[in-house]
Each structure stands twice: as structure tokens, then as C-alpha cells.
Amino acid sequence: MPHLRIAEAAALLGVSDDTVRRWISAESVPTVSDSAGRTLVDGADVARHAARASSPGDRTDVLRSARNRLAGIVTKVQVDGVMAQVDMQCGPHRIVSLMSAEAVRELRLEEGSLATAVVKATTVIVEASPRDAR
């Protein structure tokens, strides 16, 4: 499962770092420490709080023509044969993308993964950075 720094989780959910820390304390959200001693939360636990989210910004500095990019967190992945359904919470928006099961495997999408939905007309394209696709 991917792990996120508190600041990353807060940005994805559109809340302050302190709010995430309060959730960790009050709701017993489990944490781990990375090699630098920073507190990390499991991406799946962040995904469970996604309904409380507001819109996060684009996490990349790449210039592109697509304007409808929604950074968010994967909340559910259903794979059935050759097709898959990927649900994401992108701020207040729930995005559902239908894609090949092969694409889900290649992007290593799972609950708690960070991803960006690119919406063009009625098509949703999901991107994941190499850091997130481990």
C-alpha cells in the first residue's frame, strides 16, 4: 500500500496538516515513520477520508494542453477480466474511469494510490507518476 506524508494527505483532501493529525489522533489512524523520521499514513486510510475533501491542485509542473486535470486519490479498483473500474476522489469530485485491466496493472493502481484524472469530453484518462506506480 502506498504511504503519504501528512502534508500530501492534507493537500489531497483539501484540509490542513493539523486536521490530518487530529484524525490520526482521534480516530486512531495508524502511521509509520520513513527513514528520515517523517510520519506517514497509509494511502488507503486517506482514501477512506476522501468524502471530506475539497479540490486539490495539480501535483506536477508539466505543461500540457489538457485543461481538465483532477489530482486525487484512488478509492476503489475493480478488475473483471480484461476491463477495470477505477474510482477516485478528486477534491469534492468522485471520478470513475473504465479502462483495461492491463492499464491498471501497469499503473499499479490500488486503493490509496495517488493519481490524476484527465477528463476529455466523456473520456477519463488516469495518470500516475513513477513514484506512485511502484
TrEMBL record:
<dbReference type="InterPro" id="IPR009061">
    <property type="entry name" value="DNA-bd_dom_put_sf"/>
</dbReference>
<dbReference type="GO" id="GO:0015689">
    <property type="term" value="P:molybdate ion transport"/>
</dbReference>
<dbReference type="InterPro" id="IPR041657">
    <property type="entry name" value="HTH_17"/>
</dbReference>
<feature type="domain" description="Mop">
    <location>
        <begin position="63"/>
        <end position="128"/>
    </location>
</feature>
<dbReference type="Pfam" id="PF12728">
    <property type="entry name" value="HTH_17"/>
</dbReference>
<keyword id="KW-0500">Molybdenum</keyword>
<dbReference type="InterPro" id="IPR005116">
    <property type="entry name" value="Transp-assoc_OB_typ1"/>
</dbReference>
<dbReference type="InterPro" id="IPR004606">
    <property type="entry name" value="Mop_domain"/>
</dbReference>
<protein>
    <submittedName>
        <fullName>TOBE domain-containing protein</fullName>
    </submittedName>
</protein>
<dbReference type="Pfam" id="PF03459">
    <property type="entry name" value="TOBE"/>
</dbReference>
<dbReference type="InterPro" id="IPR008995">
    <property type="entry name" value="Mo/tungstate-bd_C_term_dom"/>
</dbReference>
